[in-house]
Specification:
By secondary structure, the chain is of the alpha+beta class. The protein contains two helices and 13 strands. A hairpin with a 5-residue loop joins strand 8 and strand 9.
């Protein structure tokens, strides 16, 4: 009986020290395409708002799908300003933050350049050249259309089972 107990203890220790063969590591720098699921506008969104997105394509590591197309992703509005007079347009800065893996865990992402502006240079030039009355020409609000794709990258290695 004592032999069997010792045998089970040794097997238990060995089994716990063997890495899980089904776990995959998504390397830092892995490209992940995400897209907007609704129109995002500087007229509506404000700093701190969450923007719902989805993965635009499957992400595969070592032949295994780790992120499925359509998986939820989230972005955050870093800065938002509405349009102004004299052709000065709105501004919208967003930061893609994370995407959900096939096992339900969230993988941190980054998108380096998520800034969009809606200035109307023509309005500004006309204001300066023609007449002061053009100061009342409004700028444009920024809109990021539904389905706009952002190429993001994985921030740090993430384990997916």
């Amino acid at each position: 009986m004592k032999k069997w107990t010792s045998c089970f203890v040794v097997l238990g220790v060995l089994a716990s020290s063997v890495p899980d063969a089904s776990a995959l590591t998504v390397p830092a720098g892995t490209k992940v395409l995400v897209k907007t699921v609704e129109v995002v506008s500087s007229a509506v969104q404000k700093k701190g708002d969450t923007i719902n997105m989805v993965a635009a394509a499957d992400v595969v590591v070592n032949g295994q799908k780790v992120i499925a197309a359509g998986a939820p992703a989230l972005a955050l509005v870093q800065n938002a300003s509405k349009r102004f007079i004299a052709g000065i347009g709105g501004q919208l800065d967003i930061q893609v933050q994370k995407v959900q893996a096939t096992d339900g865990t969230w993988i941190p992402l980054e998108y380096v350049k998520g800034e969009h502006s809606g200035s109307s240079l023509v309005s500004v030039v006309l204001t300066v050249v023609c007449c002061i009355c053009f100061i009342f020409i409004p700028g444009k609000d920024v809109s990021i259309e539904k389905g706009t794709i952002f190429e993001s990258t994985v921030v740090s290695p993430a384990e997916v089972r």
